[in-house]
Amino acid sequence: MSDAPDRSDKQFDPTPRRLEKAREDGNVFRSRELASAGLLAAATAVIGIGAPGALDTLRVMTARLYTGAPSAALTPGSVPGLLADVGRDMLVIVGPLFAALLVVALGTNVLQSGWTFSAKPLRPKGSRISPAEGAKRLFSTKGLFELGKALAKVVIVGPVVYLALKAWLPEILVLHTVPLDVAFRSAGGWTLGLLAQMLLALLLLSGVDYAFGKWKHTQDLKMTHKEVKDEAKESEGDPHLKGKRKQIARERALGPRLDHAVLQADVVVTNPTHYAVALKYDAAEGFAPKVLVKGMRKRALRIKALAAEHGVPTVEDVPLARALHATVDEGAFIDEALYGAVAAVLAEVYRQRDRP
After folding, report:
1. Where are the residues of the annotated region Disordered (predicted)?
2. Where exactly are the structural domains of the chain?
3. How many whole angstroms separate alpha carbon 126 and alpha carbon 255?
4. Fold that domain 249-354 belongs to in CATH
């Protein structure tokens, strides 16, 4: 049985982390129809505004070429200059259109999904050339919607073009009989009118495409309860491990390092494995011995091992070890009630140390 989650189980909206990861993978929503409508609108605007100037530039360039052709000598030295002149004129004619299309193409995509760059979609995947996966994509909800869009373009745009050309057909048939400038103006007006009608049809289609695409993208990114839980663990860490790490961090922040503390101790009182308390007495610091570090179980064994490693005396005294561990914090002086017992332990340690 497949372990893949059923789509019906995806009931939770995508989290910010899920959306961020999808963006890193290049999985962002963009409506191609909206971008196409934007490009058509830009082309219509640029042609409508810049066509007269572009035609004037084209007329001047053509006149210059034809009038200068009889006296111009085509040599290897003159050809680069001639091509440069023609290139400048063509840049003036088509440059604004190409610049507008580039700006609109980038703008519509950035406005829809923000600036995103990812090389992951370019990586080869076996699923892209798999016939089974291809058929699955073709008959998926998205595939059927794309097919519906293609048919809608034909159904909507086709009649618009047909009716426009049918209305202009009588004038088109006699276009060759009118002066050239009149023919250009007439053709330009028809072109702009046709582009405007097509733009209205595509704007309607792009609105439907944007709404459906946005909904479908969100549905695909929805998460199951298990995915939400796993993401929380991944982002914040397992609660048990997180609590353990905090406890260790607190212990390290509050207490000195074990090895340094044990090395400074005069004696380690043990119980014998459950408790271990490292004591030090320095008359210059205070009137009573101080607990440097203490520990239970594994920490106690670690303290004992460090004491043996550094040659610090170890005294087994069950009641005293329990009392010290229970009543005195690390870095604090011992209670007055324990003076006698601790003094006896320290006196024995000092005698052993001074014994030849």
Report:
1. 1-25
2. 10-115+180-232, 249-354
3. 56
4. name from scop (3.40.1690)
